Amino acid sequence: MKKLRITVDGKVFDVVVESLDGPTNPLVSQPPLPSFAQTSVAPPPASTPKPAAAPVAAGSGAVTSPLAGRVVSVDCQVGQKVDAGAQLVTVEAMKMNTFVYAESGGTVATIHVNPADAVEEGQVLITLS
After folding, report:
1. Rounded CA gap, 36 and 13, in Å?
2. How far apart are CA 71 and CA 69, in angstroms?
3. Domain 62-128 in this protein, CATH class
């Protein structure tokens, strides 16, 4: 058994430590553990769900970002006709590129982002007409 003084975030705690790899004497009475050692650690609070992105009206042709990140490239131009599945934008998050595709065919009406722009999940990137 060793008595130690430990400082955590500027708070000083006096603790008694028992060595598990050495012989112990069961006849020696052990002092009670400090009150902070007897408390259990509370689980972290449940994370609050992120508010959902504003819903996009059906048929509006809005193409939204699937995640928060930074725009690497815009792979289309205003007035360009695109088919369903065409790659429109590349978004980078955590050093991984995510390609954003057109869900339906149409013409690129508006480009709402530029390369190097930070985007949020659900943010409108492209509007198709």
Report:
1. 9
2. 7
3. mainly beta
